[in-house]
Design brief:
- The chain is an alpha/beta fold.
- The protein has 8 helices and 7 strands.
- The chain has a single domain, classed as 3-Layer(aba) Sandwich (Rossmann fold), CATH 3.40.50.
- Pfam families: adh_short_C2 (PF13561).
Length: 251
């Protein structure tokens, strides 16, 4: 198999692809032949990713700006995709937010923000994508959960709950959409070297690394490689699974 063309001619939407894990997934998908649709809350935030992909493919990818916490904007995003491509083959539900709040300090607004993006946004995107995927060959949906959604963490009760829900969504959707040929899986990254963890203290990171057998932070491109596996025919008989990309943190 030509490893440079694992996703040849696939139409792929990667939400939250302006930076970090989403950006690396978009890059890797493009390198493997996918026609990648970029998404960010503001179009300008995706320009750097778009230019990088143009260097890879020679084509400027479509960018769609949408607030994943707003259903009407999500709905319009998928309408735009249908208008241009008439189908969708791959969806990576990567867009997410993280806010640290200790129990007793979690406001209703915090909960609404975290769940509206991480959980409800993921569910809305999955549902609308599934409609477009009925015309696809070997479609795949990849939801980004988190090791925190499995293990929990101090100060992240709301975030953990939102990401645990993503795993439940993944399992149920895999059972329901499987008969239509749509595979649904999740990734649960551990501590990955992105802007999202810059607020963590050196002591907190060090304590985390002590419990990680590989003894280091993960890289966004390492999560992207796992996403490529789940998006491609290499995982053609894999559905309903949550793959941990955590350096062995949870063994």
């Amino acid at each position: 198999m030509d490893l440079t063309a694992l996703l040849e001619n696939k139409i792929a939407l990667v939400t939250g692809s302006s930076r970090g894990i989403g950006k690396e997934i978009a890059h890797l998908f493009a390198k493997n032949g996918a026609n990648v649709i970029l998404h960010g809350i503001i179009e300008d935030h995706c320009q750097e990713t778009a230019q990088d992909i143009k260097k890879i493919t020679g084509i400027t990818p479509l960018i769609i700006a949408a607030d994943i916490s707003d259903y009407s904007q999500i709905d319009q995003m998928f309408r735009d995709i249908f208008k241009k491509f008439k189908r969708l083959d791959l969806l990576v539900n990567n867009a997410g937010v993280l806010e640290d709040r200790l129990i007793g300090m979690i406001s209703a607004d915090n909960i609404d923000k975290i769940f509206s993006v991480n959980t409800f946004g993921t569910l809305h995107c999955l549902q609308l994508a599934a409609r477009l995927m009925r015309k696809s060959t070997a479609p795949s949906i990849i939801n980004l959960s988190s090791i925190i959604g499995i293990e929990g963490a101090v100060g992240q009760t709301a975030y953990a709950a939102s990401k645990a829900a993503v795993i439940g969504i993944t399992k149920s959707a895999a059972k329901e959409l499987g008969p239509q040929g749509i595979r649904v899986n999740a990734l649960a990254p551990g501590l990955i070297e992105t802007d999202m963890i810059k607020h963590l203290s050196e002591n907190k990171v060090a304590a985390h690394l002590e419990n990680t057998p590989l003894g280091r932070l993960g890289l966004p491109e390492e999560v992207a490689k796992a996403a490529l596996f789940l998006a491609s025919d290499l995982s053609s008989f894999v559905t309903g699974q949550t793959i941990q990309v955590d350096g062995g943190l949870r063994v």
